[in-house]
Amino acid sequence: MQIKNLALIVAAGAGKRFGGEVPKQYLPIDGETMLGKTVRAFLEHPEIDAVRVVIAKGDKKIYNECFPKGVDKLLDPVIGGAERQDSVRLGLESLQKLKPENVLIHDAARPYVSHDLITRILETLDKYDSAIPVVSVKDSVRVDGKAVNRDEVFVVQTPQGFHYKRIYDAHKKVKANFTDDAQVADAAGVRLHFVAGDEANIKITTLTDLKPQNSNPITRVGMGFDVHAFETGTHVTICGIKIPHSHQLKGHSDADVGLHALVDAILGAIGEGDIGEHFPPNDKKWKNADSAKFVQHAAELAAQKNAVINNVDITIICEEPKLTPYKAKMKVRVAEILKISPDCVNIKATTTEKLGFTGRKEGIAAQAVATIVFLG
Predict the structure, then answer these.
(1) Please, where are the H alpha helices in the chain?
(2) Tens digit of pLDDT for each residue in 153-176?
(3) What is the pLDDT of residues 295-324, one digit of tens each?
(4) Rounded-to-integer distance, Cα 246 and Cα 329, Å
(5) Which of 337, 341, 281, 283 is nearest to 311 (CA)?
(6) 105 and 167 in contact (C-beta within 8 Å)?
(7) Which domains does the chain have, with CATH numbers?
(8) How many Cα atoms are found within 13 Å in the side-chain-facing hemisphere of 136?
(9) Predicted TM-score (pTM) of this structure
């Protein structure tokens, strides 16, 4: 495959400043993941021949959930390093056999990159070894307490474009830990050529950056409740975790009482009915289905409405089995399904003091509350 222009998306960061355990590039934004939105901008540009993503070592599973196999122009991801510069170098190294003429290096946390900006970068690379997008500074600037002429200061963005061989050689040569590739190129003697950036091409660093233009986000709360009776079996599945038990829960799908309550809570918050409307119990398609699919569907509906799941709280009500040893695993699993931080998930377990059907050990009930923020 002849490749002239290749986009290298750096997505190996942990998003420490953003907070939470799920890297920010996998969180929902505008109806898709941040990484998905970023990658799509390059895949849909007619002059970009291929896209490769650099991911963290432990992120292969969550990456695969973002992109089905066989996406046109999307190459297999490569594993990055400890620092951004390490990740870019490893990404560039993986392109040796492809020998692209130009490479555009872009941060996954800039999902609003425009086709116009990509085109400006590519047009500049027809004449120069590099193309670095910058925007002017609007605020007054001081360095070490002293005023600086803001007309002489600008902010550097990505994608930063280079002739592939020049930037790869620069990364092999320069060992200092810089924060962007323009600094690496400059240190290696590559002349930098600047182009107009894009004010909308913001970098998502904190939660408030997700939709900064909306000063009045709307918060809604939904509640869900579900019950399943026991039948003969070897385990129960609650919040995605299989727990050994003398009985299993009776239901058309996997009868995950915790996730079913969660689905109704999310649907309630976004005004989308209940679980039975979306997954009818008489539809053979959902026989023995993994309830994680139901939760993901509800989360996708929320994302389509430009809503972020801010917090979920699930209470499991039963006498048996004892759930305390499994609550931490449930918390992590629910966070994985929703692609949110485990800090935003709470799992509680309680009994009815041997009263009612749960007290008689006839089944398990669950309640869930979901708090969702509509970003406008």
Answers:
(1) 34-43, 60-66, 84-93, 115-125, 164-173, 181-187, 257-270, 275-278, 292-304, 327-338, 356-359
(2) 889 999 999 999 999 999 999 988
(3) 999 998 988 887 889 899 999 999 999 999
(4) 21
(5) 341
(6) yes
(7) 5-210 (3.90.550.10), 218-374 (3.30.1330.50)
(8) 7
(9) 0.59
